[in-house]
Design goal:
With 557 residues, the chain is mainly alpha-helical. The longest helix has 28 residues. It is globular. The mean pLDDT is 91.
Length: 557
């Protein structure tokens, strides 16, 4: 079946956009997940790599002078799924020096007065190590007047590697994304061809979410991203460019690789706006260097993608009102206190939602005329037709299961088998994505027999303050904002609002609220005026320097 036919045939949730004509669906084996959440929320792509993949798109669009966030509304007012192509350099020389080379420091240790000998030895040893790609490092002798300075430059850039302990393949290791010269396409280490083993489009999903923020937010986001990210000339990026070689993207082996974005079903969601607003709020902290802001950007981006996953599941499952709240246990202890138990229950509830969502999606299939006609036939032909229907609408199964003929199963049994294939998956699922990213973003805590529950790290709490506080904010108002904006429950007032009608005791939430204040005070984000009055402060906020007075209402308090 052609790509166009795949696109036109898939079953869509209510209100979802049809995939773009250029979207590749040939590798999809079960449309249930991708139809609800998009291509692809992947547990094997750490939040740092998600942010880097998003930055790859931003720098590529910035270099081509295109609008970073054009939205999805066409000039005639219709809405169409966007298709964004972007190029990422392989950056082979720099990648080799940083992640594969074992010789630079050894050679630098010789401290020879004849530096020409050192440069020649480096070039010769590189040829011995790299026999396939013909890496030529002779340009370094003119780029650096001293071998020792060169070796120290390598050390400096190696110090800003991210996820350094989780990736071994040298062509899948990455730096803080402080500029285009510090970006690398993830490639196969032998062929240097594009490889989606780790970069599985979750960063593209992040970009698409930003691109679908409302018309009032996108221009602000565009200005902030251009000023703070795309147009930044960071010293480390300049150093990386110096190491990478002149015109490093021109030879065949090092030519940039072109990718195109995947699929995001829903054209509008409030979580898109929340994500874009938090990006704007963080990027408005002009007194904070980008390398410092990247960590809260990474954590809040992961958090919003988790919230997106929960919200989509809740909507698709037919949930009424808001999704189940996120209860934060601030004790940091594995003791079974009431708040900790509730935080664990809510975490389990959220991870169970995707299964309920797809069950409801497949229930909708039975309501279509095409399916009722199939069931009504009650013949062998109807069973073959059902198999073809599920293959076309849900791209499942890709082929007939060996030893089992479609005609051996009724249409309803085939539908249940499709549901079971989704629900029984144990790896690379939407719920394993939620677990992986929540842990890596500092949103949850996992302790042996105690299980896993929502318990934010200091870094995650810091990100919440930086994105939500400008002028000093009364502590109770800060808690109310977390509840209204993110569905986060900390204190008794928020618990009463979230669990109206519940018979639970809200008394334990008082200690939970006090514990949050204590943790924020240790971080330097609390200014207590008296026994009854405490303010959350953002010491990095400069009203004049950050131009907060010009910020539109809603981006931060």
């Amino acid at each position: 079946m052609s790509t166009a036919n795949l696109r036109d045939g898939v079953f869509l949730p209510e209100g979802a956009l049809r995939p773009h004509t250029e979207t590749q669906l040939s590798s999809v084996t079960n449309w249930c997940e991708y139809g609800v959440w998009g291509l692809t929320l992947h547990d094997g792509q750490p939040p740092w790599f998600v942010l880097i993949e998003c930055f790859q798109i931003l720098h590529s669009l910035g270099a081509s002078s295109e609008t970073l966030f054009p939205g999805i509304t066409l000039p005639d007012g219709t809405i169409q799924h966007e298709h964004v192509e972007y190029s990422v350099p392989v950056n082979l020389n720099l990648r080799h020096l940083l992640f594969r080379d074992q010789e630079v420091m050894k050679i630098a240790g010789k401290r020879s007065f004849d530096t020409a000998v050192l440069w020649k030895e480096l070039a010769d040893r590189t040829k011995d190590v790299d026999k396939r790609n013909g890496i030529d490092l002779t340009y370094l002798a003119s780029a650096f007047d001293d071998f020792d300075k060169f070796s120290k430059s390598i050390e400096v850039l190696r110090s800003v590697e991210v996820e350094s302990f989780n990736v071994t393949r040298w062509t899948s290791r990455h730096l803080l994304p402080l500029g285009p010269s510090m970006l690398f396409a993830d490639v196969d280490e032998t062929t240097l061809a594009a490889d989606k083993r780790i970069f599985r489009r979750t960063g593209e999903m992040l970009y698409l979410m930003l691109n679908r923020a409302s018309e009032t937010i996108r221009p602000i986001l565009e200005e902030r991203v251009r000023t703070r990210i795309v147009d930044l000339r960071h010293p480390l990026d300049q150093l990386a460019r110096r190491l990478a070689a002149p015109k490093f993207g021109e030879s065949t082996a090092k030519k940039p690789i072109t990718f195109s974005t995947g699929y995001l079903p829903m054209p509008r969601m409030s979580v898109y706006d929340n994500l874009a607003e938090d990006w704007c709020a963080l990027l408005w902290l002009n007194s904070v260097q980008l390398e410092i802001l990247l960590d809260p950007l990474m954590r809040l981006s992961a958090f919003h993608q988790i919230r997106y996953t929960i919200n989509r599941a809740w909507d698709e499952a037919g949930g009424v009102g808001e999704p189940p709240p996120i209860v934060f246990d601030l004790s940091g202890s594995a003791r079974k206190n009431p708040v900790q138990r509730l935080a664990a229950d809510q975490y389990d509830n959220h991870r169970a939602l995707p299964r309920r969502a797809v069950e409801r999606l497949l229930d909708r299939v039975t309501e279509t005329k095409e399916w009722t006609d199939l069931v009504g036939k009650a013949s062998v032909t109807s069973r073959d037709d059902a198999w073809n229907f599920l293959k076309e609408r849900f791209l499942w199964p890709k082929q007939k299961v060996k030893g089992i003929l479609p005609s051996s199963q009724t249409p309803e049994v085939q539908r249940q088998q499709l549901l079971a294939a989704f629900q029984s998956a144990t790896s690379h699922t939407v719920w394993t994505f939620m677990a992986s990213h929540a842990k890596r973003a500092g949103l949850v805590l996992a302790r042996g027999k105690a299980g896993t529950w929502y318990s934010p790290s200091e870094s995650f709490l810091e990100a919440l303050v930086l994105a939500n506080v400008t002028a000093p904010m009364e502590f109770g108002r800060f808690l109310a904002r977390l509840r209204a904006r993110y569905g986060i429950v900390v204190g008794p007032e928020q618990a009463r609002d979230a669990f109206q009608g519940s018979l639970m005791s809200f008394e334990p939430f008082k200690a939970n609220q006090v514990r949050l204040e204590e943790r924020l005070a240790v971080l330097g984000y609390i200014d207590r005026k008296s026994d009854d009055c405490a303010f959350v402060i953002n010491p990095f906020h400069d009203r004049i320097g950050d131009r907060r007075e010009a910020r539109p209402t809603g981006i931060a308090a």
